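Q: what sequence does this backbone want?
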């Protein structure tokens, strides 16, 4: 909480995305290895799932399954035993798949491309894909606040903003700054945390 850092895990190859599971453990994807590892509180690591392509974004469903975004165009659904199957197909991304699960268990996906305008996608629990909100420059991190409102980091050419997405799909700028990428919310007090590639900010 005070910003002090200490090593937790060593030896994970190209750790890419993080998510805490219903079991309280940290899950980490590796895009080069196509794997997801599970980290114990003492820092010990075990392989949880593999053969997941270019594994990027992670998010858990209400049922406790792990959703993994393969940047080459697949969303995988991984059960608590580490067995996986394809859930949905999304257009490939040049950068990453960012995932967030909505309160109704719908999956929201950001998949930035080289196009001048990108969209967010909605994926139903059954795997039905809908192109949802359009007009982003390069959508990156996604997170729902404690009230269930989606926030999106949109970054392009060094400029970046955090949008709040309304129920009518409207966008409201809540924060701007250079190089913003990731976002999350503290579930206890709703504090927003955003990061660049080298700095983490807490936004009160």
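A:
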């Amino acid at each position: 909480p005070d910003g002090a850092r200490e090593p937790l895990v060593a030896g994970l190859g190209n750790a890419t995305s993080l998510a805490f599971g219903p079991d309280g453990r940290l899950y980490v994807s590796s895009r080069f290895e196509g794997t997801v590892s599970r980290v114990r509180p003492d820092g010990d690591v075990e392989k949880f799932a593999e053969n997941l392509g270019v594994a990027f974004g992670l998010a858990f469903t209400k049922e406790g399954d792990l959703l993994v975004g393969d940047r080459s165009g697949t969303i995988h659904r991984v059960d608590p035993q580490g067995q996986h199957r394809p859930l949905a197909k999304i257009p490939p991304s040049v950068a990453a798949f960012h995932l967030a699960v909505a309160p109704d268990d719908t999956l929201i996906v950001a998949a930035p491309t080289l196009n001048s305008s990108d969209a967010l996608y909605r994926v139903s629990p059954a795997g039905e894909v809908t192109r949802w909100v359009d007009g982003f420059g390069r959508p990156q991190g996604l997170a729902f606040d404690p009230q269930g409102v989606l926030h999106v980091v949109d970054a392009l050419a060094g400029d970046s903003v955090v949008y709040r997405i309304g129920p009518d799909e409207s966008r409201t700028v809540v924060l701007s700054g250079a190089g913003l990428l990731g976002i999350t919310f503290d579930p206890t007090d709703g504090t927003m945390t955003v990061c660049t590639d080298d700095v983490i900010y807490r936004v009160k």
